[in-house]
Amino acid sequence: MLRSPLLGLAVVTLCVSPPALAQNYETQIIEEGEALEPLEATEPTSLRLLEQSDSLLSYAGGQRLMSEAQNAFNAQNYAVAADKLRQARQVFNQLSNFYAQLSDSFSGIDNRISDQQRRFAQQTAEMRDEATYRLALVHKAQNQPELATPLLIQIVRSQTPTTELGQKAYEQIPLNQPDSLISVAGGQRLMTEASTAISNQNYALAAEKLQQARQVYNQLSNFYAQLSDSFSGIDSALSEEQRNIALESTEMRDNSTYQLALVHRAQNQPELAVPLLIQIVRSQNPTTELGKKAYQQLFELGFVDSPYPRS
Q1: For the segment 99-127, what is each residue's pLDDT rounded down to a tens digit?
Q2: Per-residue confidence at 15, pLDDT binned at 50, 70, 90?
């Protein structure tokens, strides 16, 4: 049973593309000659709608979504919790972007307003990252590490590993779980299944498994590269370790790509094999063993005329 780290509304940061919010405005048609009430005659409090707790596009609105997500999580209603946290993440991200844009607009014009808007942008970015962290924990509670992992890495990059939330996110990253598909072991299982399918001449299944393996290793390579960048200048040994794993994952991705190209060639589908082989040559460069093998396949297919290395 996952312990509930969602308790409390911490103030926490991210950059997602949120959908448009607060679209429920009514359109009023003004008849010709109708007198318009001066704006100054309206009560000032009625104009500050975004300060009201029932407004979605507000700090209070985002907190309300976080609270609803907490209640759903406590009731183990993970689908509702995830939906509420996605909404909260979008609200806080949109607020952070808006405040940051206002801060830039007032920079050099009114530094007091610019600094105030920048603080608001930082606070709402913190809340966005907190919502992202809680959403990742919901995915882990649902045994969905493939959804949790990219969110946790986003937090590490946004917060840096030196912050409390950044450290918590790094500790939760499930990349080393052998039963997870998004792991080196998960990719190896797919490669083994593909090899068995090839032995049985079930090329359609082999191609499917190899394509999945390619995606897994490519994700791993990107994730470890991002972690390496995040720890650069903070923990050199850990940064180097993550970089080496990223390179190993890239090598395995290219190897699964080569195997997939061979499957396409066995099915007499050179139009599918050629682009994969060129990707390998570009990724590995022609001097590596795998790069040479990929180029040789291009030569045997008749796509290139000159062998390499020259005899």
Answers
A1: 999 999 999 999 999 999 999 999 999 99
A2: very low
Omega prior to 309 cis, within 30 of 0: yes
Phi-psi group of 285: left, alpha or beta (phi > 0 → left; psi -120 to 50 → alpha; rest → beta): left
Residue 108, phi-psi category: left (phi > 0), alpha (psi -120 to 50), beta (remainder): left
Q: What DSSP line would sit under 212-267, residue for residue?
A: HHHHHHHHHHHHHHHHHHHHTTT-HHHHHHHHHHHHHHHHHHHHHHHHHHHHHHHT
**How far is Cα 82 from Cα 90, in angstroms, rounded to an integer?**
12
Between CA 131 and CA 116 the distance in angstroms is 23
Phi-psi region of 61 (alpha: psi -120 to 50; beta: other; left: phi over 0): alpha
pTM across the whole model:
0.75
| CA-closest candidate to residue 216, choices 112, 299, 146, 114 | 146
Would residue 201 be called left, alpha or beta, if left means φ above 0 and alpha means ψ between -120 and 50 degrees? left
Q: CA-CA distance, 29 to 27, in Å (whole number)?
A: 7
CB 276 within 8 A of CB 267: no
76 DSSP 8-state letter? T
The CA distance from 58 to 51, in Å, is 7
Q: pLDDT (tens digit, 9 = 90+) per residue, 157-169?
A: 999 999 999 999 9
